[in-house]
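Look over this record before class:
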Amino acid sequence: MEIPKKLVNAVSGCADDAVAGLVACNPGLRLLQGHRVVLRGDLPAIRGRVALLSGGGSGHEPAHAGYVGKGMLTGVVAGNLFASPSVGSVLAAIRAVAQAGAAGILLIVKNYTGDRLNFGMALERARAEGVDVQMVVVGDDCAFATPGKAGRRGICGTILIHKVAGALAEAGASLNEIVEKVTVAAKAMGTLGLSLSPCSIPGSKPSFQLAEDEMELGLGIHGEAGVRRMKVLSADKAVETMLEHMTDPSNASHLSLKPGSSVVLVVNNLGGLSCLELGIVAGAAVRCLESRGIRIARALVGSFMTALEMAGVSLTLMLVDEELVELIDAKTTAMAWPNVPAGPATTRREEVPAPTEGPRKLQDETGTGPGTAQVQRVLQRVCSTLLGIQDKLNELDRGAGDGDCGHTHARAAQAIQEWMRSRPPPAVPAQLLSSLADVLLEQMGGSSGVLYGLFLTAAAQSLRGRSDFPAWADAMDAGIEAMQRYGGAAPGDRTMLDSLCAAAQALQSLRSPSADPLQVLAAAVQSAEAAAEATRHMEAGAGRASYIRSSRLEQPDPGAVAVAAVLGAVLEGLRDAQ
């Protein structure tokens, strides 16, 4: 097992560098000289109020230093990676806020042996110096059915205790009052984690291994073992499993949750989960809780207490009443606390009605044009061609894109087929191209869908009231001009425009009164195919391929190949219809 890459300066200085960077970017924070301690920059403002100190090992960012600010923590003490801070640094932080005139000091500590010992020792020494200091230990982990002697681990729910205590302190509550209220709140709270991957301290191998098809339930924020390994589940199933475990009465560390209860929900990224996945999990959590009759008074979604780069998520639930919700809503300047909207989370929000589409003049047009049966034969040939080259286009796209060009064009073909099954395609050229533009813009997706939509929309406008052969040459020119105007590409940039422009040049022969349209189209297809092949040797000047070194682009552009194939299919379809 290899040591993962990390973007650090030196392994030994990671914790110091991270704290220094945070303070450098936040004018409201200060470092305590000689210690890895972050304090509010306006310490004199705490005179006469209770000061709140927390901390623990580094590697859980933005916890804890991200929660220093007015309305939350007064300061934090950071240890090395996944290691408790020293007694000396904790004591130095206590002395600093005491000398600033704090009316009592509360230490908020996660339930880990090292944190309890070091913060506890500093508390005892501070009391011996006459400082009024107390400690609350947070244990919100719901993983273990029978917690051992060490008790429940302190994990992401700790940030809610920071917030409640901070709001109380800012409002002028006494030390005893704060201790009483946060102790009650902490007992009505539970958290459970789920991971898809391990984490690794810089310079070290991953803390554990998970098979490609496994996930682990109930693990700790340092990579400690969970309670169950299981096959990877969908987001909905995973969230349902987590909530069932958290609220199972047979689990001694469960959270008692009854229909009608009101909760604050925290959906916490453990470090390496994408924002996309986090949003999916958040939606699943809200749906699952609502189905149980639970009201989600507030929902926090983001990275609040991480485990380095662990790809996982934790769910925290705190039972709340109106007073606790007001404390959660109270203002804070802490940079890591989210701008939480003051309202409940729900999946039952009324949607904004879709705007009604105005009447379309194109559909009122009459005129001559290819018959409906002929249009259907041509479109069916185009669709079958695109479906047949799906794998080829995907393979061509892998060198410079994300390998989905074939999928995108196949999706367009399937959408056109479905559209033709639902109604006969218009026979009037302008209406036909405009309708195809609507289908592709709605169903095709990606940049290709928009580019084809632009081309067909502009071409349709050029064909309004016309069906003569020169009109098709004008339509081709109009479509290309629209693509260039908005897409930014030009001939020679190794895009679909190379094939289109080559075909458009050949189609200029349609302006001759003696032109044979099928012969002209056949020449246009040959020109498009030659242009597509020529893109093999071009330097990409636009599109995603322009970010790739030309030496890696040894195949023709998939978009250009697709355009040539479409034109060829149109030709074959027209020949079949004769």
In short: Residues 362-369, 544-552 have pLDDT under 50 and may be disordered. The chain has 17 helices and twelve strands. The CA atoms of residues 140 and 190 lie 5 Å apart. The first strand starts at residue 29 and ends at 31.
